[in-house]
Amino acid sequence: MKKRLRILGNIVIILAISIVSILNYRELRSKLIQSYENYLANVTSFFDRALSHNIEKSGSTDDFALIDEADRTKEKSQAELTKESNHEDNLVNQELLEQTIGITFETFNVLASDLRITVMDETGKVLADSNFPGDKLNNHRARPEVWGVISGEESHSNVRFSNTESVERLYFSARSSHNNMIVRAAVLMDILGNAGSTITLSSLVIGVVALLTFNLILSLLFKKQDKHQADLERVLAKIQSGDLSARMEEDRHTFADYHKFAENFNLTVTNFEQDYKEMQAGRAWLDAMVNSLMEPLVVVNQDLQIVFANKYAKTLFNRDIDPEENPYPFILLTHEDKLDDLCQKVFANGKTVRKEFQLQVTGRYNAFQVMISPVDVDHVVVLFNDVSYEYEARELRSSFVANVTHELKTPLTSIRGFVETLRNRNNTAPEQVNNFLEIIDVEAARLERLINDILRLSDIERLNTDSDLEDFDLVELLDECLVQLDEQASEKQINLIPSDDPTFLPVKANRDRIKQVLLNLLENAIKYHRKQGNIWIDLKRKGRFVTIKVKDDGYGFDEQSAKRVFERFYRVDKSRSRILGGTGLGLSIVKHIALLYDGEASVKSIPDKGSTFKVILKI
Ligand code: ADP
Fold first, then answer.
1. Which residue from 577, 580, 604 has its CB within 8 A of the most atoms of ligand 1, so it is best to mutate?
2. Of 41, 171, 462, 539, which sits most exposed with the smallest number of CB within 10 A?
């Protein structure tokens, strides 16, 4: 563009100067020809009169009087002169005429050396020439200036190149007033050539100066423009690389337009920087908020790719990749294609949907209430609300109901069966009847225990803190339990061995509840024990917590069962538990009492070696 402008500018300047020079030259030439024509008209007229005078003089021998006479008769009309000349021409002979012309030539050569005068007869035959011998020159009738006069014009001028002299001349022919002669005067046109050279030279100088000035100004303009552009490019590159502090140079010495542009540009960048900072602050705040959410949250695009995941989502679903930089398929996070379908549904109808899913998180399955809402046409936000606890509670509740139903049904079926048998058999032996009644009694007792345990458990579960708290001695309560279980233990030759220390352990709690814990642990230790053995009981206080430890050398159980013995209705050995009248709720009651007192219940057991139950209570 710049190159084109420079070339175009130079061409225009050269053309303009050339045209002006040519016009000047033409003007000069036409003016010069005009003034030469006037001059030559005077010369031919003057020559004609001088010739007439000399012819007359050659008759009266009156030296150069013709010139003075010619001056004096300047005002006389051309018609009068012609009349007189014609009259005298008849008087001179040819030789005398040539001599007279020669004399007249000499006079004119003194006046102007570059002047050429030719005298011809009316047919164009050269009579005499100031520069050449007349007899050497051919007939001049074919010359335009001569032909013009021959053909009737008073005078005729013509600029042409003289083949005789090899120079350019302006020829001017006029009819002589003597003997029908034609007088032709010619001047050299070399002055025009010189003027042309001068014009060319001056045009050249003006042209060079104009071109130099033009190119210099253009270079200065381009330099400023280049500087401005380079500055703009520098700032744009910095902005592109994230440096919003970059500004253009506001140069007061440059063009007003550039200065104004730089000012406006800088103002725009400043406003943009401010907006960007505000936006970033807003974004940071939003990020902090979203990342502080203790619920996984992700944003999914139309291609079902995650483009944003909050901190908790990355941690919970164990995904380190930052989806903002490297989006990845939603299914890689959830492993559930139904969620992809649900996203597509939200994209299609733009309505929020909620659904519960079991999703794998860090090696286990959690239940999530998943809510998918549209953000814009291209994105949906997916919020995972972890409802595992509610889900487990629900599951627990339904399995508890199923278990309770089953547990109640077994003794009831048994009772009804024996009642039916007794009713249908009238001749049953009395011992048999007693036997049946005994079984019914046992099953009824089991039913009662079961119902009592269920009520007890639901009673504990309902409470946040226990009621009916009282101060009592835990050692004394333990002794009470040991007395109560003495007979049961003696039957199996099991020694109940409480530790000697402490002898007094004051606590504040619901006495019946703590007694329940002691009885359940001790009864189990006796029940799940072969004949002969030991049970050690240890009570200890550490700060606000009391630990009850019951150790036995009974059947024990494996690690897998150890994890589950505190579950409702879990039994290591179902038939043994049933024979022994267990409800499967004893340890569950112990655990819930421990939780009620901000503590915990745990067990360590080795099959055939024995178990150690530990209950910690804040009492
Ligand atoms: P149950 O009424 O059946 O005794 P529990 O909840 O008290 O129910 O105990 C659950 C299961 O744990 C029992 O069925 C039994 O198999 C096992 N168990 C509890 N205590 C002991 C123990 N001291 N030694 C061995 N097994 C035990």
1. 577
2. 462
CB 607 within 8 A of CB 556: yes
Q: What is the pLDDT of residues 374-431, one digit of tens each?
A: 999 999 999 999 898 898 888 888 888 888 898 889 889 999 999 988 888 777 788 8
Residue 407, phi then psi, degrees to nearest 5: -65, -35
Do the strands 328-329 and 305-309 form a parallel or antiparallel pair, or are they unpaired?
A: antiparallel
Residue 75 DSSP label = G
- When computed from its CA atoms, the radius of gyration of the chain, rounded to whole angstroms, is 69
Domains of the chain are 37-73+81-188 (3.30.450.20), 293-386 (3.30.450.20), 403-462 (1.10.287.130), 470-617 (3.30.565.10)
Paired tokens of 612 = 């150690």
Beta pairing partners, 386: 368
Taking the centre of ligand 1 as the mean of its atom positions, its distance from the CA of residue 576, in whole angstroms, is: 10
d(CA 545, CA 466): 16
DSSP state of 341: H
Instruction: Report pLDDT digits (tens) over 453-512.
Output: 999 999 998 888 999 999 999 999 999 999 999 999 999 999 999 999 899 999 999 999
In sequence order, which residues have a C-beta less than 8 Å from that of residue 11 and are 6 or more positions away? none
Q: Are 600 and 616 in contact (CB under 8 A)?
A: yes
If one counts every other C-beta atom within 10 angstroms of the C-beta of residue 190, the result is: 12
CB atoms within 10 A of CB 111: 10
Cα distance between residue 270 and residue 246, in whole Å:
9
Q: Alpha-carbon distance 384 to 402, whole Å? A: 30
- Measured from the CB, is residue 550 less than 6 Å from ligand 1? no
CA of 154 to the centre of ligand 1 (A): 159
Pocket mutation for ligand 1, best pick of 571, 578, 585, 606 (most atoms within 8 Å of C-beta):
571
